[in-house]
Specification:
Elements lengths: L2 H17 L41 E3 L5 E3 L6 H5 L11 E3 L7 E3 L30 E3 L4 E8 L4 E13 L2 E12 L8 E13 L5 E16 L5 H8 L18 E19 L11 E20 L4 H4 L12 E16 L4 E15 L14 E17 L2 E10 L7 E12 L3 E12 L3 H4 E2 L8 E2 L5 E12 L3 E10 L2 E3 L5 E3 L4 E14 L2 E14 L9 E13 L5 E12 L6 E3 L4 E3 L9 E11 L2 E8 L11 E3 L2 E2 L4 E11 L1
Antiparallel strand pairs: 1-2, 1-5, 3-4, 6-7, 6-35, 7-8, 8-9, 9-10, 10-11, 11-12, 12-13, 13-14, 14-15, 15-16, 16-17, 17-18, 18-21, 19-20, 21-22, 22-25, 23-24, 25-26, 26-27, 27-28, 28-31, 29-30, 31-32, 32-35, 33-34
Length: 652
Amino acid sequence: MKSNTILSLLIVLFIGNSLFSQRTLNRGNFGNDTTILSDSTNTTGEINVTLSGKTKYTDYKVFSHKRDTTYIDTTLTLQKEYKFNYLRKDLFEFLEFHNQGQTLNNLGYSFNNIYRLPDFGFSAKQASYLDIEDIKYYEVPTPTTEILYRTGLQQGQVLDALFSLNFSKRLNVSLSYKGLRSLGAYRQALVSNGNFRGSFHYRTKENQYEIRGHLTTQDFRHQENGGLTAESLVNFTEDDPNFTTRARLDVNLANSESQFDGNRVYLEHSYKLISSKDSINNKDFSNLKIGHVFTNENKIYEFIQKALTPDFFGNASSSNPKNRKAISKITNNELNIEFNSKYVLGKFKAKTNLTSYSYGYDTILNSNSSISKLRIEGNAISFGADWNAKIKNFQLNADASITPGNGRLSGNYLKGEAVFEKDSIFSVKGTLLISSKSPNFNTLLHQSEYDGYNWQNDFSNVNTRDLGFDFTSKWLNASLNFTNLDNYTYFNEDSKPQQFANQITYLKIKANREFRLGKFGLDNTLMYQNVTSGSSVFRVPEFVTRNTLYYTDYWFKGKPMLVNIGVTFKYFTKYNANAYDPLLAEFRIQNNEQIGFPSFDLFFNAQVRRTRLYFKVDNATSSFSDKNYFSAPNYPYRDLTIRFGLVWNWFI
């Protein structure tokens, strides 16, 4: 992230707030008690918001890709503490690398929300990638801005800025940019990430025509160090006082970088042929709508070295090609027709997708390889349907598609869910997912100057079956997922892709319970996992726990400040965590080292009006504990690190 980019963005945000003011708000109270509908941890009670005119906090709406509606949230909760990181997600099931924005190792897996099509691959570099489902759309009565700032490691910072305004009640535009530059504590650990997204949505006066879309450009440039050398590992684990400055430790790679770039254009629009105010689905046929969805997405990955390192990656050919980029291009057009009817108990959509795909290289990179083709490409057509129904306290949803043929996109997808909600007391959800799709493209075709990193495979589809249950209430939140995987595709100890010949059976149970006593709270999350078949290639810790003891109260006369002060303990049992391969940007299995350790994080957070302040100490006990904390073999987790940041909302 370049400093002039940040400065230009801030200037645009401030000028936009000045030029496009639509109404004036009483800033005195807005945000102190505003809640978000999906935040089950917020128990502040009644909402007390004072606004001028007719503007209410519920007018500041946020829409997800699936059109779920929440509100811009300016509260301070424990969940906000968990999500105050570069990704702005709860990372309970992940193990971060020492520098923010690098990548994540898995402590658990989720298969209940996988995509219909195979992916590009190089998945370790896509931890920061924003997919279609991650893009938000807004509807705000006045120009609205949100700024997140967070300090980096050693040098650098994170800035995530959002600016949204409505030109009219029916037309909204939002611009966002998240930039990161963080040096890291170890050599060759610099991270420079950028995520730009622009979104809009528009509807006509009678909602007969509606259009929404977004544009994203994302780039991640990382220095790669290959982890610590064998000698440096000894110096680290034995806590040699000469190496408390981590930059003194030697690393395996000194001149390597990886570059991941992606851009996407997404456009979705629909037109109502028959309009009706049928809201209870008691008519034979109503709200007939035709629609079109266009997606064009390009991804590029390149591993860059000034000089080859055969001592680390193995023998290499003498060629030195100029273009080492792996390039993926996917264009998809969906045509659909949607209607309401009492005969289908709700809303039904039939859809057809026409997909064009291309993945590969521009030239042969290794003269010693036996690769016979440069690209995997073709066209595919799929047919599917969506169904949504509301029957008393039950919400039923289904999504199905099939892609016939013998091409790389052939397969099928089915996801169904049933939700029962009893007022606001509790809800129960059951889900079923059945999927058959190709493995990621980089497992099928990969090229490199290094002889051991060239392959051309004809793998079978990966078959996934996931059965899940979720229970949510004021007293307990719990989930259970039972997953079967056939033809599971992984990278072996030699960093080569393979398919597991047998079935993998994976059980995951997670529960959360919070106890409150006056101004104190204890939040507990426990996850149990068991792999009854396939544990030789599918590795997870048996137990993962996170426990947070915290204090919350208003300080000073007039209650101008809400504080959250506490400590978070996290621990996972030892397991053969996957190793990271920087050339592939993938994790591979290994059998030489087990990882599992406890960590303590301290935090002091405060809210003043619409500003949330965060002060955090990561791995607070590292200075006097055993040096056994690793994110992956050869990659130590972060030492004691002090971070500061804030989230600030403006409503002009």
